[in-house]
Design goal:
little secondary structure; 3-stranded antiparallel sheet; 4% strand
């Protein structure tokens, strides 16, 4: 132990004893005074030494004062008490504690006072702060601050804690209790009094009160925190809770919000509870008031107005909020008064709206909707729905009266006071039902024992100016079944009295009375309409009641109308009037229709038989006599008269569209016997007369707007023989026979558009494939030999414009042939001529008539027009001469002659060919001469051969001039030569015509099949004295808007099949003569001036189809002894533009490899080989780039590889290195080295492989591959877009893979371990909505989802624990459970035995054994809190997915089962065993009123039933035995 150092002043018995002062040195200048340090000793391994500052035990112990000195100008020094830092453990605490006082004194105080200020500034603050959490522990909390008084001893109280700001003349300081701000969750602020544990004791009061004031007292504001977050965040809540009561018999604390009392003339303070405003577009906060839930009865909510001592009590007003919105659907808030819903057993509470009881007159109760400028609100009163029982009734009754009249019940709809508003309707209806009968509606008058029963009056409303309201009594419509019956009946009576009668009477009126209509309902289906049956009453012993129909009597008697029902789609209903059938001896009754008789001079009543009207076909009227062996006769005659008999008219009714037909015909004879029957004759004739017989006129009616009707006269048809003829002939006469005239109708309108009727004669048409009848138009032959036949003249009448005569045959079908038209003169001794002459015109300026011969048109090939002269049997055939008309007028021209094919009018059609040629002959064929005539005075006419023009974008017609072919000799010569002249011969010009683009001129010899093809010689003629003509081939010059001038192309002939090569193209200068040199050859483009560019020069061999193309060699000559000439490829110098490109490109190939390009330096036999240096050009700004690569490919082929390698070395030598290096720089950034494989649109992108060299030596090993970042540089490995990043083992198996979508896969080789260790925590977290899967092999054993842990294999867990700490439960949510109700539901849960599906067994690792469990769908309605339904359960890697998947909470099942056992144990209780006896068995029902849900007035306990089961057939039911146990010899058996 090291020695101590002790400083001790001298002691004494009295006086001032010696002190010890430790002082640093003073500073007389501007420097700091010396410090005084007290430091305990340190320890390398143990505790450091302590420092004690204390005064010794004494009668009065001394003070310890730690203070800094007074400062004259600057701030005085601070006092800091700090414990030291701890690197590995907990830093030391700082404790301030006052010593214990004696028994009769108070404990000492701890006073912390900040400094005061003598000037105008504020006093100092007192800051107490806990320690902060370290930066390496983000989830730890900072230290707490605790202010508390010490515990009270015995029955005394613990000390007060007073937090008060100082008194001030102005405003005293505030007190702020606030938790610190936080990014996640700020701390809570709790003010509570202490708890008490003694029985009957009360915990302390918590009072928050504003200060009193002689003016307006201060307010108390309790506000939740404001939120500045997003849509799902909200401001903090404010909750006021009364204290909980946890023991039986104790009540929870009350929460009271009371306004301040007032003792003056102003009322007490109001209490206002308002929800928060919804500013901007937010909703206002809700205001909810609810009483507490209870294990027995829930707490009530009472809202009452205050008691009024002198006048009326305070009112209670509940109103919803209004709105400032102007939208159509805006409305004030809703008010909902409802008792709580009951989901388990028991009923919901009642709702009572009533006024208070009163000795004089109780208050009224008014339920009404508010007034509105538009539509006032509805009032709906209804009872609730019921699932299994009956729906609740609604009873509305007026009040009873013991001594006066009972109150009236008045149900009345609202009135409509405007000119257009109607009064509101009133509806009373029975309740509807889904499967049973709907509820009935009964209107019953009040019963009476001694007086008349109350009447039931159903009366419509009265109207002062319009008609009164209607009254409708009917059953409702039905969509699927029959509608209900309507029964109107009087009551039955058993007394000797009459039953009441039924009257259907309309009201009387001074104008017209209403109708009484009996109409059964219409049907929209195929069923029959309803029946109306009016029948007199039957009588058992008397005469049946009379059935009588009659119109009403009056000034004019009412009509009686019988009509069948209308048919909307099918036929209307029939009306049958039948007399009664006769018996065995009597005949049937007659039906007589008699028109009414008339007196004096009026007409008798008519009988009208008329068929029914219809939009389609009106009803028929059928009059037929009776049938028999001889049919009855039907006679229709007009009435006889003294002056004239009545007319008989057969006519159809007039119609706005078409009137009906009238048919008069005899009946058909349908006998099938061999003696054919004969149908009756029809004769229409006028009667004979001694003077003039009446005419028979067959004429259709006239028309005003359309064509006149036809008159058809036809012979009779026959199915077996020929049809009957229709003969029209004039009458026979002694001198002249009567004429037969067929005359069309005259046109009465005198306008130019009027036209007389035509006369048409047409033969009959066949019904099948036969021919139509022939029509012969001719005169009869002469009666005797030598007589003349009559002429036949077809002519149109004279007029301003005469009619046309048309001779044509009829059209035929597509597969038939139309008939021809022949104009032939008769044959004879001298044949007759056929002459077609156009009409002559004698009017000056008019044209004579044309003769037009048109062949027929056709869908495929039109008919031809053939002009053929007659054949001469013994001499020359007849000629064909087409000559235009001549002229007799001077200086006029004769007519033109045009031979042309017709125009092609339709789109895409072509005009026909025009051929002029002489005929074939065995001798000489005739010549074809096309020439203009000779002129004696003027220029002779030209001969033009023109191809046809076109208006479209196609080519114009060609003109082909060719000499004749010869099959054995030489073809004809085509000689184009100009005419000779005395001065000069004419030019020969072959040129294309001018246009937007001119055509080409081609001069070529034709192909030769066996010999040589003809040559083409362009040659100027020799000149004897002058210069020989020049041969010049010159392309056209482009204009100012042309993109290029014409090219000149000279191409030698291609080689044939047997030729070794194509024709040569030789450019050779002219040979020199004597000492002159041969001519030069210059190939150059024209010089460009200004801003133009000179043309290119290209020298190349031609392309080849299958063999190699020719080479191009540019060579300098060889030198045997000297230096061979150099070759320079030099691009011209550019003064200000970019330097020209020098491109060396080998040949391309369509199917084989393209030509290679080799840059090879010269080889050396003895020295170094020549170098190859490829470098870009230098530049002031930057040197040029250099690119080395294979060319791009097209059409799906591969691009060529690029290989950069040093040459191979022989044995013992080393190969050259390959370096890719960017240049160094002093200040700028050095260039990157980037190795990038090519990308692909549809295929796989190229790979980049860096591989060390392999070695066959086992000692040396393969080459090292290292990727090292520069100093401070990052090493980044990144896959391409959608590509993967893989780390392979030595066998090329991927072990670490990051796929293109960011997935990560790590694996070890089969049989090898994979270790994943963390120096700290290890997190395995998937994204939101994803899973973490764990398993063995190819199957998933465990999956961790966001809200559940799913196991696919049986789990073996040594222990399973669930959180059950009371501190994590909401105190207000802890309620008692209705054990009996739960037991009843648990006992009804069906437990089934079943096996899972094969898919589920496979996914969950289960066997085929059956399990006993509950099925979610079956127990959901019984125990809904056991069952949860997932929207979807899916295992994607297993291909499994189910929507609406049911789960059962086994933990809830366990506790509910435990609670059910506890419930059963309360009723079937097994007591504990004791040393002296076994446990008791108690069977009991619950005490009355002690269970959850019991009524307050419940007084009965439940029964106990012990019964054996029911036996079947002849079996015995079981006995019920109650017996006590046996006892030993000295014991006593129990009683029963």
């Amino acid at each position: 132990r090291s020695g101590d150092v002790s400083l001790r002043a001298g002691g004494g018995e009295a006086g001032i004893l010696g002190s010890i002062e430790l002082a640093g040195g003073d500073s007389t200048g501007a420097g700091s005074g010396g410090s005084v340090g007290i430091k305990a000793g340190s320890s390398a391994l143990g505790l450091g030494g302590d420092i004690f500052l204390s005064t010794p035990e004494s009668g009065t112990s001394g003070h310890i004062s730690v203070q800094t000195g007074t400062s004259v100008s600057a701030p005085s020094g601070g006092v800091s008490i700090t414990s030291g830092d701890s690197k590995n453990g907990v830093a030391g605490s700082i404790s301030m504690r006052v010593g214990q006082s004696s028994s009769g004194e108070d404990g000492g105080d701890v006073i912390a006072t900040a400094g005061s200020s003598a000037g105008e500034r504020g006093g100092g603050s007192v800051l107490i702060s806990s320690g902060s959490a370290g930066p390496d522990s983000p989830s730890s909390a900072s230290g707490s601050i605790v202010f508390r008084s010490a515990d009270g001893s015995g029955l005394g109280s613990s000390g007060w804690m007073d937090l008060t700001t100082g008194v001030s003349v102005g405003s005293s300081g505030g007190i702020k209790l606030a938790s610190g701000s936080s990014v996640d969750l700020s701390g809570a602020v709790e003010i509570s009094s202490g708890t008490t544990s003694g029985k009957g004791s009360s915990s302390g009061l918590v009072r928050v009160a504003a200060g009193s004031s002689s003016g307006t007292a201060g307010s108390v504001h309790v506000a939740g925190g404001m939120s500045s977050g997003g849509d799902k965040d909200r401001g903090g809540s404010v909750a006021l809770f009364g204290g909980d009561a946890s023991t039986e018999g104790a009540a929870g604390g009350t929460v009271r919000v009371v306004g301040g009392s007032s003792f003056g003339g102003v009322g007490g303070g109001s209490v206002s509870i308002e929800a928060g405003l919804g500013k901007a577009a937010a909703d206002g906060g809700d205001l909810a008031m609810s009483s507490g839930a209870g294990a027995f009865n829930g707490g009530g909510v009472a809202i009452s107005g205050g008691h009024g001592g002198a006048r009326q009590g305070g009112g209670v007003s509940i109103s919803s909020g209004t709105t400032d919105s102007l939208e159509d659907d805006a409305m004030s808030g809703q008010i909902d008064l409802a008792t709580g819903s009951q989901s388990d057993l028991g009923g919901s509470g009642k709702v009572l709206l009533r006024s208070g009881d009163s000795v004089t007159e109780s208050g009224s109760l008014k339920i009404s909707s508010g007034d509105s400028q538009s539509s006032s609100g509805k009032i709906l009163i209804g009872s609730g729905k019921s699932v299994e029982g009956a729906g609740g009734s609604i009873s509305v009754s007026a009040g009873n009266s013991a001594d006066s009249v009972g109150g009236e019940l008045d149900l009345q709809a609202g009135t409509g006071s405007s000119s257009t508003g109607m009064g509101g309707g009133a509806t009373l209806g029975g309740g509807s039902a889904a499967e049973s009968d709907g509820g009935a509606l009964r209107l019953v008058g009040g019963a009476s024992q001694t007086g008349l029963g109350g009447s039931v009056d159903v009366v419509s409303g009265i109207s002062e100016e319009y008609r009164s309201g209607g009254l409708s009594l009917g059953s409702a419509a039905s969509a699927r079944a029959s509608t209900g019956d309507v029964l109107v009946s009087t009551g039955a009576t058993v007394a000797e009295a009459s039953s009441g009668f039924i009257r259907l009477v309309t009201g009387s009126s001074s104008a017209s009375v209403g109708d009484v209509l009996l109409n059964p309902g219409a049907t929209s289906g195929s069923g029959a309409g309803g029946l109306i049956q009016l029948r007199g009453g039957a009588s058992a012993d008397g005469v049946g009641g009379l059935g009588s129909f009659g119109g009403g009597g009056g000034f004019s008697g009412g009509a009686l109308k019988l009509s069948g029902g209308d048919g909307s789609d099918l036929a209307g209903g029939d009306v049958t009037m039948a007399a009664g059938a006769g018996g065995a001896l009597g005949g049937g009754g007659e039906v007589t229709l008699i028109g009414g008789a008339s007196e004096k001079s009026q007409d008798g009543g008519s009988i009208v038989l008329r068929g029914g009207r219809s939009d389609e076909v009106g009803g028929s009227v059928d009059l037929s006599a009776g049938s028999g062996s001889l049919g009855g006769r039907l006679s229709m005659k007009s009435g006889a008269g003294t002056e004239s008999s009545g007319d008989l008219t057969f006519a159809t009714e007039e119609s706005t569209t078409a009137s009906g037909s009238v048919a008069i015909q005899s009946g058909a004879a349908t006998s099938s016997s061999e003696a054919h029957g004969e149908s009756g004759r029809v004769t229409i004739s006028s009667g004979q007369s001694s003077s003039t017989a009446g005419r028979v006129v067959v004429a259709p009616g006239s028309t005003l707007g359309d064509d006149g009707a036809q008159v058809l006269i036809s012979g009779g048809a026959s199915k077996l023989m020929s049809g009957g003829a229709a003969v029209m002939s004039g009458g026979e006469g002694d001198a002249l026979g009567g004429d037969l005239r067929l005359i069309g109708g005259n046109a009465l309108d005198g306008s130019s558009s009027s036209k007389g009727g035509s006369v048409m004669m047409t033969s009959g048409s066949p019904s099948g494939t036969g021919s139509s009848g022939t029509m012969v138009l001719g005169t009869a032959s002469g009666g005797v030999i030598g007589a003349s036949s009559g002429g036949l003249s077809l002519s149109t009448g004279s007029g301003l414009k005469t009619g046309t005569i048309s001779l044509q045959t009829g059209d035929s079908t597509t597969d038939g042939t139309a008939g021809g038209v022949d104009l032939t003169s008769g044959s004879g001794g001298r044949a007759g001529n056929v002459r077609l002459s156009g009409g002559h015109s004698s009017v000056p300026g008019a044209t004579g008539g044309d003769i037009s011969l048109d062949a027929g048109s056709a869908a495929d090939l039109g008919g031809s027009l053939i002009l053929t002269a007659g054949t001469g049997s013994g001499s020359t055939g007849g000629g064909v001469k087409v000559t235009s008309g001549g002229t007799s007028v001077d200086s006029s021209s004769t007519g033109d002659v045009h031979l042309s094919s017709a125009e092609g009018l339709s789109e895409g059609s072509s005009s026909g060919i025009l051929g002029i040629m002489s005929g074939d002959a065995s001798g000489l064929t005739g010549s074809v001469l096309i020439g203009s005539g000779t002129s004696s005075l003027e220029t002779a006419g030209s001969v033009q051969i023109l191809g046809g023009g076109t208006k479209s974008g196609s080519e114009g017609g060609a003109v082909l001039v060719s000499a004749g072919d010869s099959e054995r000799g030489t073809g004809g010569v085509l000689d184009l030569s100009s005419g000779a002249g005395a001065a000069s011969s004419g030019d020969v010009r072959v040129a294309s015509a001018q246009g937007l683009a001119t055509g080409s001129v081609i001069v070529e010899s034709a192909d030769a099949e066996s010999g040589a093809s003809g040559s083409i010689l362009l040659k100027s003629g020799k000149a004897v004295y002058g210069d020989a003509g020049m041969v010049q081939i010159e392309a056209g010059t482009g204009g100012p808007r042309s993109s290029s001038s014409g090219d000149v192309s000279i191409v030698a002939g291609a080689a044939g099949k047997l030729a070794s090569s194509g024709g040569d193209l030789k450019l050779r200068s002219g040979a020199g003569f004597g000492v002159s040199k041969s001519g030069s050859i210059a190939i150059n483009t024209n010089t460009a001036d200004g801003s133009r560019k000179s043309g290119d020069v290209r020298i190349g061999s031609g392309s080849g189809a299958s063999l190699a193309t020719g080479s191009v060699a540019i060579l300098s000559g060889e030198s045997k002894t000297g230096v061979a000439g150099s070759m320079l490829l030099n691009v011209g110098f550019a003064g200000s533009g970019r330097g020209g490109l020098l491109s060396l490109e080998s040949g391309r190939s369509a199917s084989h490899e393209g030509g290679s390009l080799a840059l090879v330096a010269g080889a050396s036999s003895d020295g170094l080989g020549g170098k190859v240096a490829v470098s870009s050009g230098s530049g002031q700004l930057s040197s040029g780039s250099m690119s080395l690569g294979s060319s791009a490919s097209f059409g799906g082929s591969d691009t060529g590889a690029v290989l950069i390698e040093s040459g191979a070395a022989a044995a013992g030598g080393s190969t050259g290195s390959l370096e890719l290096e960017t240049g160094s720089t002093q200040r700028g950034d050095s260039g990157d080295v980037r190795v990038t494989a090519g990308s692909s649109l549809d295929g796989v992108g190229g790979s980049v492989l860096i591989e060390g060299g392999s070695s066959s030596s086992t000692e040396s090993g393969g080459g090292f591959v290292g990727v090292v970042g520069g100093n401070g540089g990052t090493l980044s490995l990144q896959a391409g877009l959608s590509g993967a990043l893989e780390a392979l083992d030595g066998f090329s198996n991927p072990r670490l893979v990051i796929d293109g979508s960011g997935g990560f896969v790590a694996s070890s080789a089969p049989g090898e371990d994979m270790s994943l260790k963390s120096g700290s925590s290890l997190e395995m977290i998937s994204s939101v909505g994803q899973e973490v899967l764990m398993g063995t092999g190819e199957s998933t054993g465990l999956r961790v989802q966001g809200n559940r842990l799913v196991s696919h294999v049986p789990a073996q867990l040594s222990d399973v624990r669930a959180p059950a700490d009371a501190r994590i439960t909401k105190a207000e949510s802890v309620v008692n459970v209705d054990q009996n109700a739960l037991l009843q539901r648990v006992m009804s849960v069906p437990v089934k035995s079943f096996s899972y599906t094969e898919d589920w067994q496979s996914m969950q690792g289960l066997g085929e054994a059956s399990v006993r469990a509950a099925i979610g769908q079956e127990i959901e309605s019984i125990m809904p809190d056991w069952v949860s339904v997932m929207d979807e359960l899916s295992f994607p890697e297993m291909g499994f997915a189910l929507q609406k998947f049911y789960e059962v909470n086994d933990r809830q099942v366990l506790f509910d089962t435990l609670l059910s056992l506890q419930t059963m144990h309360q009723r079937l209780m097994i007591g504990p065993n004791s040393a002296g006896s076994s446990g008791s068995l108690d069977i009991s029902t619950s005490d009355a009123g002690t269970y959850v849900g019991a009524e307050f007035a419940g007084r009965s306990s439940g029964e106990i039933r012990v019964a054996s089961g029911t036996a079947k057939a002849d079996g015995d039911s079981g006995s019920v035995l109650l017996s006590s146990g046996s006892t030993s010899v000295n014991g006593r058996s129990g009683d029963v």
